[in-house]
Each structure stands twice: as C-alpha cells, then as structure tokens.
Design brief:
This protein has 756 residues and is α/β, with parallel strands linked by helices. It binds glutamine and zinc ion.
C-alpha cells in the first residue's frame, strides 16, 4: 500500500513566502531573491514529504498566490488590461493578483472568491472574447524538473479543465462551448509535455466534480476527458476530487481511462456507498482520502483501518491519501511550544498528517493491524477523555425555546424607531471596523504578549490609537464611527482568546488569500464568556465623539467557521454555545450606552454545503438561528449591523434577510452589482451597504468613481435603505491610502446626497 498527498502548504512554516513577497512588492528585495526563497520553500516541502515516507508527492502545488491563477496564466487566460501593462511575467502575475497602480497604468486585481467550502480564496480567471487558450507558461514543467533535480519524482498537479471552466468568468459573448476545443488541445499538450519529460503520474484536480451537476456538465466532462486522455501516452493520470462525493458523475468517471481516481472519504459522505453499489474498476487505483485535510485532530486509526478494510472488498489497489490539499491546515505541531502535551498529542497538522499516512500504511501492511504498536498507541489516545465539558452550558442550550430566537418588534417597526432616534443623514457613511494595523499597532500587541510592557502601557497605547482614529474619522466626516480594532490580531482569534473553551496556537498559520494567512483557534471544549470582552474600548471610543461609535463583535457562525471545530459535539450545539456567549456581550454593550452594534458574519456563506439539498437541513437551519439568538433581546432602538465578506449570497437572500439584522454591509466592488438586483427582486428588507471600493488592493478610488457606483446602486436601492462604506475592514491597508480613500468616499456621498 502506498501513500499520497494531494498538495502541501506553500507559504512556509514561518510564513516565509508571505514576508518575501511583501518585501519584493515593497522593492526591498529583488525578483531573484524572491524566486530563490520560493525555491528553498519548495525544496523544503518536498524533502519533508520524502523523509516522512510519502510515495506520491505533488509538484506545482506551490504558488505565489493561487493555483487557479497559475492555471489561468499557464493557459494564457490573461485579460488584455494586464497584458497592456507590458510587465514581465511575475509582475503581470502580481498585477492580476493584487492590482497595479504605477507608472505603467492603473488596473484592479481580478475578482476573488472563496474556494468551495473553505476559507481559501481563488482569483477568478476572466476569459475574454479575444482570449486564445494554449500553453503559454512553463511553471508545472519547471517545477517537475526542479524536483527531479533534487532526486524526487513528483506527480505534477494541475487544476483540471472542467473545474477551470466552471470557475472562470466569460466576460464577452463567448461561452464554454467556444473554448472546449482549445482547452482539450491545451490539456493534451500538458500531457504530451509531461510524457516527454518522463513523468510517471500527473494529477488533475477536479473539485467541481463534487458539486451538483446537470446533464450539460456531464456532457462537458465526457467531451473534455475522452479527448484529453487519448493524449495520455506513458504518463498515468490521476483524477483527483475533494470536498465531497462524486455522486453525479461517478459512473462516468470510473468508465474513463484514468489510471487513478481520488475520492474523499471525509467530506464525501456518499463515496463508500458509490463504490459499494456501483463497483470500482479493477484496472484503476483508488486514491482514498482518509486523512482529513481540513481539520487538525488526530486520525482515529480504528475508524480508518476499518474503512480501508471494508474498501478492500471492492478495490484491489488502494493508495492512502489526504482528503484534500493540506493547504488548509497549518504546518506542524512541533512549533507550538506554548501548548502542553496534554493538548498537542491530540493534534495533527500537515507534517503530522504525513506521519499518520505512514503509520496507517505500516499498520495496514501488517497481518494483524489491531495489534500494531502504532494502532494501539492511537487507540490509547482516543480512549482518554479529553473534553472539558460544562454541564450548565449544555443545559442552557437545551433549554432554548422558540422565543429566544425572535426579536421584537418586527423589522419595519424597528426601522421607523431607529430612524427617529438615531437621526442619521441619508446615505450614512461608515467603515467595516478595523483601521490600518500599522507597525506600532502590531508591536504594541507583540510587546504585551511577550511581557515587555505592562497591561497599563498596552491599553494606554490602544486608547491613544483609538483617540487618533476617532479624531480622524470625525475630520473625514464619516457618520457612524468605529474604534479601529487596534487590540485585535484577528476578528476570530481575538474572541477565541477571550472566550473559555478555545485553544490558540503560535505558528498555526493557514493561507487565506495571496500573502494573507490566518491563525484559526481550536475549539477544545464547551464555550462560554468569562467577562466583557470589548466593552471598555467601545465605551471609551464613544466618549470621544458626538457621533455614534459601533460596537464591534464577531458572530457565532463566523467564529465557528473560522476555527477548527470539535468533532465530538454537533456544529449546531457549538454555534449555539458561542451565540450565547456573544449575546452576553451584546447586552453589555447596550447597557453601557452603545447604540449601534455590528456583529460580523464574514464567513456565514463559507460553510454552506456544496450541494443544495443539504443547505437547510445541514446548515442554515441552525446557522441563521444562531445569529438571531445573539441579538434577539436588544431594545428596538438599538441598531444591529452585520457584515459579510463577499456578496455571493444571491441564492440564500431569504436566509440572510432572516438573520433579522437592521443593516448589512458586504463586499460588492470586486464582483459586479448583480447582487443588488437580486436583493431588490427578493424584497430584501434589511438596509444595505454594498461596498463601494475594494479594500484588498492599495488602489485609491476617485470621488467620481465612487459617485458612479452610488448612482448605479441608487437606481436599484431606495435611498432610505442605502449605506456607504468600503468592502471590508481596513486593517491590511496603509494609513495614507486609507485616509485618501475615505475622504473620497465621504465626498462622493455628500455630493450624491445633495443631488437627492
Ligand atoms: N470588523 C472586521 C474588520 O473590519 C471585519 C473583518 C472581515 O469582515 N473580515 O476588520
Ligand atoms: Zn469583510
């Protein structure tokens, strides 16, 4: 039995790639230095997989930003506006990833979307009518050869043609059908080239195969792959799926001449039954995804060995695989020296997952798996009780009744009351919460964490920052202010650290988009609030201005979705526990004179099941109530805002409205304003602030640009319901660009307001 890894994280255990890239973009290091750091990381990651005994190691899983963007560039899917900049390859790549504003032009970045049900983001490839698809790059070939040079035979991984076409955006009149021939030629070319290089295997990632597929999709899959696979030659092709099961195309793909098929047995609830009822072809290898690529708990060997043994009845050749790329978990538990062994022994990050694959291979190769040493050790761990349960919390959750989820009076009444009490101008301007996390802000937190400054020094610094931030917002003329979130490293980690029941890590970074990484907390036990978490700073900020300052909280669903969840209680129970804790905070803010409270649910769409039939039963039926529970008992005049990153909620508009917030702000600048039409059509009641400019890029939007956006929005949205704000928090931006952008934003709002 062999082992395989779908992909390995690339940013580096200490986020080296992030820092090198940022240094390069700030002109502090050369292109050559950046590339050599990238090479060093690739080599390190290949080596660790080799040392841990992995048989199938991927190449081309490295990326300076995103693998889908890499695939687009490989296929020459580069929009003209970037080509027109006449930059060299790497800078053109960064222009697509981050936008470009400089002597050669001014172009926004490509749109960014969440990668299936993860917190990783991909850049949306744009196929224009003039686009010609062919192999225009050498990255996968170069990296394969490079690994070979280090004595490592890899399986190059490339996003497959179907997933690529499904995720790309066609900006002109052409559609998928106009490009299938070119795509077939390009992917055949990839196979030919790897044949020529002598590659044994190549892996096509097709996560889109686990989505709901229609007949046309199936036809497209057939059309693409029968032709592409005829170019296979000696290189074997692994079709790799993940994030679910392939129920809609299983019978097709198992008939195709793939040499290996990768199925997910963690999130793919139906994978086993598909094999059992439809059989698995004898001439293919099953790459069985049994080591969870998304969560950080140790693998339960008794379950896994049982599953593989059962699978053995139907499949002759099995390779032990991760369930998806390890990109979604941190590097290694070894760097977590602040957590005691009591905790770490239950954890497995990327490197430990390699060890698990190897141990499972050893166990499964022995005559009596259950008596293998590794197996027994693992069972000892799983038989220990480890969760710190709090009986009263379970009792409160089970005692919740319908009324706890309903806010009174209804929205329309509240809207009237709030308009009268708050007395805000038309098109109120606001921001999403955070202000630039400048060096001094980060240093202040770091110094405090290291014990180099006292709590008093630490808070005094934050208060100074808050005072500056409030003064700045007053000067800019914003209507609803924020305190700036200088005390927060991350919107989830901050609360994770204050709430009981979480573990937090030192180096457990996971890539979110581009160079941005997040460090998700781990939900270890039952969650509750120990004491107020945000009240002091909020009250202080409010004391400095006559304008309203929003209280700023993270919602329960986002806290859950951006943490590594428990697997021993349901997500629903966990969400309700967190909701009760945040609810305490909401009520405390209100009692302390905060009139507007924002409860961010940046990640609510993220864990929406990939298949529509599961949306309500498995998710929305508890996620929306969890949010309602948080604010159901505030006074009618207290205005509840929520914020969502990404506006892709067209198909759950009703559910978003059902969160029963008073105002919702969301990303809209990078995607077009399609969502606005959908909102109005659906009779969306909640007031809305679709972001008027993109905060993921340092570009400064002009006044007229923002005016245009507002006018467009006003064609659809009644003026009484429209708020004016950026797409998201400003923490990743520079100070100067932030001030300029917000000045332009308030100027635009003032101008439009006058014309109304
Ligand atoms: N209030 C948070 C901030 O402004 C929201 C961040 C987010 O939506 N990701 O940073
Ligand atoms: Zn956001």
């Amino acid at each position: 039995m062999k082992t395989s890894v779908i992909g390995y994280p690339r940013v580096g255990a200490f986020r080296e790639l992030k820092f090198a890239t940022e240094e390069y973009l700030n002109n502090n290091i050369t292109k050559k230095e950046l590339k050599s750091e990238a090479l060093r990381l690739r080599r390190t990651h290949w080596n660790v997989q080799k040392e841990k005994g992995i048989d199938f190691i991927s190449s081309n899983d490295f990326s300076f930003c995103d693998n889908l963007l890499d695939t687009a560039v490989l296929l020459n899917v580069v929009p003209n506006r970037y080509k027109a900049l006449k930059l060299d390859a790497l800078d053109e790549y960064f222009a697509m990833a981050r936008g470009y504003q400089g002597e050669k032009g001014d172009v926004k970045a490509l749109a960014m979307k969440k990668w299936f049900n993860t917190n990783y983001h991909y850049m949306v490839p744009e196929i224009e009518d003039e686009t010609r698809i062919f192999i225009a790059g050498t990255k996968p070939f170069d990296e394969y050869v490079e690994a070979n040079g280090f004595g490592i035979e890899t399986k190059p991984v490339i996003i497959g043609p179907f997933t690529f076409l499904k995720l790309a955006r066609f900006t002109g009149r052409k559609t998928v059908n106009d490009y299938t021939d070119d795509i077939v030629r390009a992917y055949s070319d990839i196979l030919n080239r790897f044949n020529a290089l002598g590659a044994e295997w190549i892996q096509f990632d097709e996560p889109y195969f686990v989505m709901d597929l229609c007949e046309e999709d199936i036809m497209l899959i057939n059309k693409l792959y029968y032709q592409i696979l005829s170019a296979k030659g000696n290189t074997k092709v692994l079709l790799q799926t993940y994030f679910g099961d392939t129920r809609d195309c299983y019978s097709e793909i198992t008939k195709m001449p793939f040499d290996g098929v990768g199925l997910d047995f963690i999130e793919g609830k139906g994978s086993f039954d598909l094999i059992k009822s439809l059989s698995f072809p004898e001439d293919k290898i099953l790459f069985a995804g049994i080591v969870n690529g998304k969560n950080i708990w140790r693998n339960n060997y008794s379950y896994t060995v049982g599953l593989i043994t059962k699978l053995g009845k139907y499949c002759k050749n099995i390779v032990l695989n991760t369930s998806c790329s390890l990109l979604h978990v941190p590097y290694t538990v070894k760097n977590e020296n602040a957590l005691s062994y009591e905790y770490t022994k239950h954890l497995a990050f990327a490197e430990e997952k390699l060890e698990e694959l190897f141990e499972l291979k050893t166990i499964l190769s022995s005559n009596e798996p259950a008596s293998a040493l590794e197996y027994r050790e693992n069972q000892k761990l799983f038989n220990e009780s480890r969760i710190n349960e709090k009986k009263n919390i379970h009792a409160t959750v089970s005692a919740l009744s319908k009324d706890d989820f309903i806010r009174h009076p209804n929205f329309e009444e509240r809207e009237k009351i709030q308009k009268a009490v708050l007395d805000l101008p038309l098109l109120p301007t606001t921001t999403i919460g955070s202000f630039p996390q400048t060096k001094d802000v980060k240093e202040n937190r770091a110094d405090y964490k290291r014990g180099e400054i006292t709590f008093k020094e630490y808070t005094e610094f934050n208060r100074r920052k808050i005072a500056e931030c409030i003064a700045m917002q007053d000067r800019i003329g914003l209507d609803v202010l924020v305190h700036g979130e200088f005390e927060r490293n991350d919107m989830v980690e901050y609360f994770g650290e204050k709430l009981d029941g979480f573990l937090f890590t030192q180096k457990a970074w996971v890539q979110s988009y581009g160079t941005r990484c997040v460090k998700p907390p781990i939900i270890w036990g039952d969650v509750c609030r120990v004491k107020p978490m945000t009240v002091d700073y909020a009250v202080y900020a409010q004391s400095l201005t006559k304008k309203y300052v929003k209280g700023m909280l993270t919602g329960p669903v986002t806290i859950l979705n951006w943490s590594f969840p428990r697997e021993d209680i349901s997500l629903k129970d966990c969400a309700f526990q967190i909701a009760l804790a945040i609810r305490d905070e909401v009520l405390d803010l209100e009692a302390n004179g905060i009139k507007i409270i924002q409860i961010d649910e940046a990640a609510i769409r993220e864990k929406l099941p990939l298949r529509r039939s599961d949306w309500h039963s498995e998710y929305l039926d508890w996620a929306i109530p969890a949010f309602r529970l948080v604010h159901s008992s505030v006074k009618p005049e207290t205005q509840i805002h929520t914020h969502m990153c990404y506006s892709e909620f067209e198909d759950i508009i009703k559910d978003i409205d059902d969160m029963d917030a008073d105002v919702i702000t969301f990303e809209a600048a990078r995607s077009d304003l399609g969502i606005v039409d959908a909102l109005m059509e659906a009779g969306f009641k909640t007031e809305v602030g679709p972001g008027v400019y993109d905060i993921h890029s340092p570009r400064i939007p002009s006044v007229s640009e923002i005016e245009d956006v507002l006018l467009k929005m006003l064609e659809k949205i009644p003026k009484e319901k429209l708020w004016v704000n950026p797409d998201c928090g400003l923490k990743t931006r520079g100070e100067e660009e932030t001030v300029c952008s917000l000045e332009n934003l308030t100027a635009a709002a003032r101008n439009i307001r006058r014309s109304l």
